[in-house]
Amino acid sequence: MKKNYIHGYHPRENIRLQDQASTLAELLHSDTAYPAGSRVLEAGCGVGAQTVALARSSPGASITAIDLSESSLAEAGRKAAAAGLTNVQFRQADIFHLPFAAEAFDHVFVCFVLEHLTHPLEALGALQSVLRKGGTMTVIEGDHGSAYFHPASESAHRAIQCQVELQRRAGGNALIGRELYPLLCRAGFSKVRVSPRMVYVDSSRRGLADGFTRKTFTAMIEGVRQSALEAGLIEEETFDRGIRDLYRTAEDDGVFCYTFFKAVGEKPLK
């Protein structure tokens, strides 16, 4: 499912994902709540960073969270248990070979998964097959081309581009957020609507400066340093300057902006 996950499966990435989830929960998930009795599939749950927010917002729903990685599922299970959640079960499964009957779920939820897949349209088709007619598909993705900041820094943009290029070489797409509307339409969903969710950070929002600018976005870019240098994408001095400049945007006179995209579509009744 996430064979092309370029950030790696290590404790530091686990912490970054948790920082991201807790910082962005209100922005991304406040309008996602499924009715009691709903059967919900979370595809590509990873270490459960988003699962906890999903399960808390829909306490009466029955959530099945799947991932390809056994170690990620184990960590997700620990997170859910620590949060006292009883409405979610974890299962190892591949999005492209789902072990569920047709129309087994009322809703499907996918967050930060399609960007890592070589064939996102096929993934949406596979997920649609286990969704009941009239059920909803919710997809959330970022778009690294939407990162803007002050003070401006060409080195920072080049460092970000390294992550975009590495993800492209791995078969993914770090710019997929802008493509969600046409993707869901091509996959056959109806009533597709997309809402951009901008993270705007300045010194009046210190929680976001720390939780998002430093610990989520800049930490993610910093994490591809070795891979970018080994691939010859950038000079070491330029990359390191870019990271310093990204951290600089979280200081008192800095500003950072980034946009996520949330798409919701329905499986046609006919």
Q: Give the rounded overall mean pLDDT.
A: 93
What's the number of extended β-strand segments? Answer: 8
Termini separation comes to 29 Å
**SS content category:** alpha/beta
Biggest β-sheet description: 8 strands, mixed
Kindly identify the CATH topology.
Rossmann fold
- What is the helical fraction, as a range of percent? 40-55%
Note the overall shape: globular
Question: Low-confidence runs (pLDDT<50, min 5 residues)?
Answer: none
Query: What's the number of domains?
Result: 1
Q: SSE order, as H and E?
A: HEHEHEEHEEHHEHHHE
CATH superfamily: Vaccinia Virus protein VP39
Could you tell me the radius of gyration in angstroms?
A: 18 Å
What would CATH call the class? Alpha Beta
Number of distinct helices = 9
Q: Any idea what the CATH architecture is?
A: 3-Layer(aba) Sandwich
Strand content: 15-25%
